Amino acid sequence: MFVEIQISNYARQDVVIENSCPNCRKPIIPDVVSKGSSEKSVGKSNIFITLQCPGCEHFWVEEFSATLDGTNHYNLTHVEVKPELPSDIPMPEDIDIISPIGKDIYLQALKAENEKLNHIAGIGYRKALEFFVKDFVILTNMDDKAKIERMQLKQVIDTYIDDEELKTVALASTYIGNDEGHYFRKNPDKDIYDLKNYLHGFIFYLGKKLTFLDAQELVNRSKKS
Q1: Burial level of 116, CB count in 10 A (0-12/13-18/19+)?
Q2: Of the listed ranges 72-86, 125-139, 154-168, the one predicted with least confidence
Q3: DSSP-derived 3-state class of residue 73
Q4: Which of 74, 103, 136, 225 is 20 to 30 A (C-alpha) from 111?
Q5: Count of CB atoms within 10 A of residue 136's CB?
Q6: Rounded to two decimals, what is the model's pTM?
Q7: 63-72 in b/e burial notation, b at 16+ Cβ within 10 A?
Q8: Cβ contacts of residue 132 below 8 Å, gap of 6+?
Q9: What is the mean pLDDT of the chain?
Q10: Quick check: 178 pLDDT over 90?
Q11: Do residues 60 and 23 touch, judged by C-beta distance below 8 A?
Q12: What phi and psi values does residue 161 have, to the nearest 5 degrees?
């Protein structure tokens, strides 16, 4: 659908809005609750449109960046608003650098758990583990990157992780994570909360290992100078 917006004192322009609700996913013609724009600088404005689904009554906001092209017409760019999901544990900065997708998957799984979607949260934690493990192993074995990407997770852990503490929590997380993705549980005395504890242990030891590797690189560099 089209919504007309007053972008400046001299320009009004239509903005295209999708005919679907981001909450219930149903095709709709949303109700416009409010709309407006604010000028950032000469020829540049921000546009907002508050909408409501007539079905599930969910509210949401669409944002656009408007840039004047010199002919009194504005080029509009949709601004995707992605909320920053909070973590339940300190996440080392190094992990954020080497495995940003792994961190993102972990936070999405945490959000699912917080919304009582435990049956899918466990699968998410298992997937986050695979990204954490493989991104770390690839970092220290760049020549084997293509091979590591295609290997089974347990095979990667057994082959490339020598640190016994890191290997133990990685394998424990893998076993419980696999149970979360299958009908039959090989470890019925363990659940998603055990998986999270093991995964937290892996993240903790991985942070220590990354700190050690950074320190080791500094010491080796200093010996050569």
Answers
A1: exposed
A2: 72-86
A3: coil
A4: 136
A5: 25
A6: 0.64
A7: ebebebeeee
A8: 95, 99, 102, 106, 202, 203, 206
A9: 88
A10: yes
A11: yes
A12: -100, 115
SS3 content of the chain, % helix, strand, coil (to 5): 50, 20, 30
* Euclidean distance between CA atoms 141 and 15, whole angstroms: 49
Confidence of residue 84 (pLDDT cuts 50, 70, 90): low
**Cα separation values, 127 from 94, 104, 121, 178, 180, Å:** 19, 11, 10, 10, 11
Strand partners, 45: 39, 66
Give the C-alpha separation, 180 to 188, whole Å: 10
* Residues written for the chain: 225
Q: Do the bridges between strand 2-6 and strand 59-68 make them parallel or antiparallel, or are there none, so unpaired?
A: unpaired
Element of type H or E holding 78: strand 74-79
Determine which helix (DSSP H) or strand (DSSP E) holds 138, and give its type and residue range.
Answer: helix 118-140
Amino acid sitting at position 98:
I
* Residue 197 to residue 152: CA distance in whole angstroms: 22
pLDDT at 5: 82
